[in-house]
Design goal:
The complex is a heterodimer of chains A (307) and B (359).
Chain A: E1 8-17, E2 20-30, E3 35-39, H1 46-53, E4 61-66, H2 75-81, E5 82-85, H3 97-107, H4 112-125, H5 141-153, E6 159-163, H6 171-186, E7 190-194, H7 198-204, E8 207-212, E9 215-221, E10 230-236, H8 239-249, E11 253-255, E12 261-265, H9 268-280, E13 285-290, H10 294-306
Parallel strand pairs in A: 3-7, 3-8, 5-6, 6-7
Antiparallel strand pairs in A: 1-2, 1-4, 8-9, 10-12, 10-13, 11-12
Helix pairs in contact in A: 3-4, 4-5
Chain B: H1 14-29, H2 33-55, H3 66-89, H4 94-99, H5 102-106, H6 112-143, H7 151-176, H8 180-204, H9 206-209, E1 210-219, E2 236-245, H10 258-264, H11 280-293, E3 298-300, H12 323-344
Parallel strand pairs in B: 1-3
Antiparallel strand pairs in B: 1-2
Classes of the chains: A alpha/beta (307), B mainly alpha (359).
Bound molecules: adenosine-5'-triphosphate and magnesium ion.
Adenosine-5'-triphosphate binds at residues 17, 20, 22, 40, 42-48, 87 of chain A.
């Protein structure tokens, strides 16, 4: 899996704006073929980090490799491999959606015929086919966001940097985005996604990098979380029976409003055991499910530590 | 995907240039205000041409008004051009940056030079559109007579170059400061300095550049008694101390003035041709050429009174061309604007202009 030539590798990256240390010390590895989530509170430096990875901002210190190339010294090679979707999407508003894409294709030095074909293909992919020839300024926020995604994909980059791609998207488009991102990863691309919607990242990402105050505070594998301790939510027809049984079984728990009970379990196997024991003991269990996603729990746990 | 050899900051390809220029033109031309602006321009220049060609002959001069009409129309077109050209580029980089579209171009494989020259090309083409609209009226003025037909070639060429220079200066400022209004003001200030401030400085420097010099004068001898002598005096060489204005030390202050460049580039007529009709362009041309030539150290005070022909040589302004220097200075400014813009568009960026975000 580890391929020194591919993916994104950032080490000890720092960047300050005047006295504001936007990125203080970030280590990040995103492997080809995997989706890596970049998670952190507002102002933690995610956008600044992505700008450095996209080769727009120069880091004050640290090293970055995009597909094996340094965006500072080998800018051209790195740029040709990077697709970047900014969080605030500005567009040439007198151009039509199709022209936006063909212009970007020309800017990536594709020949006009290939650019036309690629634009048509991408417009279908992001479901903007019927708006292809409408000027970009009539597009809604979500449609612009989709156009922005298509724009990042024009030159079929091997590394994708998506800054809050899901913001403004309707549920259908979010599902489409998730499927698209998974497809891209499956075809061997490196995808780095920043987002605040953690439940969504849960289903999209393979790995997660948490940053806070401009530092990497944790890295975690999402798919490997089945064996890790986390919280589960149990509901029963009669909460009193459930809590009595839990007291008897010697498990620590906390109750939530509405009678649900949250227990911390060592892993999926522990959850299965708990369910079987509860049913054997005639507790009227209605549901047992992870309380919040893996990432949400990890994020909240980190927040907890910081307080 | 084309993974080619890396291109440097200054590498320019026709493909890249065309991509940026087309993008800019599409962005601009689709707004209807453009048609309005061109129409207003057409009406304004047409009105001035009609008014001058109608009114000037009435003030006397009759058929000789042609040169003056040509002057007024050409200068009016230049004046309007100097007002419009900064607006074409003064927002083209900081405006894009504020709209969030600059970074999207920068991350592509376009080089900074391609982005800058593409934008410059588009703005210049737009400026030339205004010139093209004015061509009928300049031809009309030319047909009023009194101007050498070849003048239209030099005039149009110089007008086009001067507008291109203004576009480049505006582009430089728009890369330098983050507010579009500020870059427009700076561009107008620069144009204003060239057209108004430097000539005023030239005028104010007259006392400083006037010195007491010894000059050889060809003059009537001392003690010549006009009452007694009936024959004209026999003039003689004498050395006298005179106030001499050394305009040859400060003429270059006038050179970069756009009006001077346009006027001086026309073919020089024969200064002794008395039949040559009055023309502001011609007067300006002679003015700056004499300024560059400076005073002669030999002067003829006899004024044709003497019997022998005057040995004092006339100052010949023919070779002392001013416009190459003026245009050269302007092109230096334009080059400066382009260099600043290209450097500001290099990525990755180390410093951001105050108060801006990349995205
Ligand atoms: N150009 C700039 N000049 C000055 N300060 C900046 C600049 N860009 C970012 N910052 C500061 O750097 C810090 C990190 O900003 P950044 O945009 O990277 O955060 P973020 O993690 O993307 O936040 P969000 O989740 O809200 O998008 C913030 O404190 C911000 O104010
Ligand atoms: Mg952000």
């Amino acid at each position: 899996m580890v391929n020194e030539g591919g993916g994104i590798r950032a080490q000890g990256v720092r960047r300050a704006f005047g006295i504001v240390q936007a990125v203080a010390d970030v280590d990040l590895v995103a492997e080809p073929g995997r989706v890596t989530a970049l998670i952190g509170p507002n102002g933690s430096g995610k956008t600044t980090l992505l700008l450095m990875l996209a080769g727009l901002l120069q880091p004050d210190a640290g090293s970055i490799r995009i597909g094996g190339f340094d965006p500072v010294t080998e800018s051209y090679a790195a740029r040709s491999r990077t697709g970047w979707m900014p969080d605030v999407f500005g567009t040439w508003d007198s151009l039509t959606a199709r022209e936006v894409l063909t212009t970007v294709a020309a800017a990536y030095r594709m020949d006009p015929a290939a650019g036309e074909a690629r634009a048509a293909e991408l417009l279908t992919l992001v479901h903007l086919g019927d708006l292809a020839d409408a000027p970009a300024h009539v597009l809604s926020r979500g449609q612009k966001q989709r156009l922005g995604l298509a724009r990042a994909l024009v030159h079929d980059p091997e590394v994708l940097l998506l800054d809050e791609p899901a913001s403004g998207l309707d549920p259908r488009s979010r599902v489409d985005l998730r499927i698209l991102v998974r497809q891209l990863a499956a075809s061997g691309k490196t995808v780095l996604v920043s987002s605040h919607v953690l439940t969504e990242l849960d289903e999209m990402a393979d790995d997660a990098v948490f940053i806070s105050g401009g530092r990497t505070v944790a890295t975690q594998s999402v798919t490997g979380a089945t064996g890790e301790a986390r919280e589960w939510r149990v509901t029963a027809l009669d909460p009193a029976v459930l809590t009595t049984w839990l007291d008897g079984a010697g498990l620590t728990y906390r109750t939530e409003d509405g009678g649900a009970v949250v227990v911390r379990l060592a892993g999926d196997a522990a959850a299965a055991t708990l369910l079987r024991d509860a049913i054997t003991a005639d507790v009227p269990v209605v549901s047992l499910a992870p309380a919040g996603g893996v990432l949400e729990q990890a994020y909240l746990a980190l927040e907890e530590e910081r307080r | 995907m084309n993974v080619e050899t890396a291109r440097g900051t200054w590498s320019v390809t026709w493909h890249g240039l065309r991509t940026v220029a087309l993008l800019e033109l599409r962005q601009r031309l689709r707004s209807t205000r453009w048609k309005v602006a061109l129409t207003v321009w057409f009406v304004a220049v047409g009105g001035i041409t009609a008014l001058t060609s109608g009114a000037l002959p009435l003030y006397g001069g009759g058929d000789d008004a042609g040169g003056m009409i040509y002057t007024i129309v050409v200068f009016f077109v230049l004046f309007l051009g100097l007002l419009v050209a900064p607006a074409l580029t003064a927002a083209s980089i900081n405006g894009d940056r504020n709209a969030g579209t600059l970074a999207t171009l920068q991350v592509t494989l376009l080089t900074p030079a391609e982005i800058v020259f593409g934008k410059l090309l588009a703005a210049w083409a737009a400026a030339l559109a205004f010139l093209v609209v004015s061509v009928p009226f300049i031809v009309w003025a030319l047909l009023e007579g009194g101007v050498e037909p070849f003048s239209i070639v030099t005039t149009m060429l110089m007008l086009a170059l001067v507008l291109g220079v203004v576009c480049a200066i505006g582009l430089g400022f728009s890369a330098l400061v983050s507010k579009s209004s500020a870059s427009a003001v700076l561009t107008y200030l620069t144009i204003g300095t060239l057209t108004a401030v430097l000539p005023v400085v030239f005028g104010l420097l007259v006392p400083l550049t006037t010195t007491q010099d010894e000059v050889r004068v060809w003059a009537v001898p001392h003690g010549f008694d006009w009452a007694v002598d009936e024959r004209p005096p026999e003039c003689e060489w004498r050395t006298e101390t005179e106030h001499v204005w050394h305009s040859e030390r400060t003429w270059w202050l006038l050179a970069p003035n756009p009006f001077v460049v346009v006027a001086d580039a026309q073919p020089l007529g024969d200064p002794d041709d008395q039949g040559s009709p009055p023309s502001g362009l011609k007067d300006l041309q002679y003015g700056v050429r004499y300024a560059r030539t400076g005073p002669s150290l030999e002067m003829d005070y006899c004024g044709g009174l003497d019997r022998a022909p005057s040995p004092v040589e006339e100052v010949e302004p023919t070779d002392a061309m001013v416009w190459p220097w003026g245009l050269g200075l302007q092109l230096l400014l334009a080059g400066g604007g382009v260099v600043v813009a290209v450097n500001r568009l290099r990525i990755p960026q180390r410093v951001l202009p105050q108060g801006t975000r990349v995205a």
